[in-house]
Design brief:
The chain has one helix at residues 32-38; strands at 2-5, 12-15, 19-21, 24-26, 46-53, 57-63, 71-77, 79-86, 97-103, 109-112, 116-122, 126-133, 142-144. The chain is mainly β. It has a single domain, classed as Jelly Rolls (Sandwich), CATH 2.60.120.10. Strands 1-2-10-7-12-5 form a six-stranded antiparallel sheet, with no helix packed on it.
């Protein structure tokens, strides 16, 4: 696997070795030993999957405190723009984001350490998104930031009139409004 560092400490893009042949392809989507040698020890405890249609924006979500989560994300089919926002108080990149296109074609994966808000937009007709978490979801520790926070300035690559949000995701506060609850 190839590890591509980003502008945010700990956030990396992982490019697996893909072995194509006339039947299709094969690649290891996760190998604990190789991952730990490249990124460090992360004890993943939960895998999740979602399916979404074009224009869906999910996020920007995070878990606070002892329930914070590191995530390893990838797309099985379709294409998304995946985004990590640094919400670690005191970080030199606080409020900055990294975005990467993940697709069933490019097989890229995105690792987000604890202390990131996470979201994605669906660029294809449909996308199946999978992710591993190193901590269990805890509703009482859930937090979120407005997907369109102008200070963060994410280009979701979807025209605003085509964006589809859940009711919940359409009412999140700006990052500046929740600074006091962050770690």
């Amino acid at each position: 696997m190839i590890i591509i560092k980003t502008g945010i400490e700990g956030v990396v893009i992982i490019e697996p070795r893909v072995f194509p042949d006339p039947r299709g392809y094969f690649f290891e989507s996760y190998n604990r030993k190789a991952f730990e040698e490249a990124v460090g020890h992360v004890d993943f405890v939960q895998d999740n999957e979602s399916r979404s249609s074009y224009g869906v924006v999910r996020g920007l979500h995070f878990q606070k405190g002892e329930h914070a989560q590191a995530k390893l994300v990838r797309v099985v089919s379709g294409s998304v723009l995946d985004v990590a926002v640094d919400i670690r108080k005191g970080s030199p990149t606080f409020g900055k984001h990294v975005a990467v296109e993940l697709s069933g074609e490019n097989h890229l994966q995105f690792f987000l350490p604890r202390g990131m808000a996470h979201g994605f937009s669906v660029l294809s007709k449909e996308a199946v998104f999978q992710y591993k978490c190193d901590n269990f979801y805890c509703p009482a520790s859930e937090g979120a930031i407005a997907w369109d926070d102008p200070e963060i300035g994410i280009d979701w690559r979807i025209p605003k009139e085509d964006v589809i949000l859940s009711e919940k995701d359409s009412h999140h506060p700006l990052l500046s409004e929740i600074y006091d609850i962050l770690l």
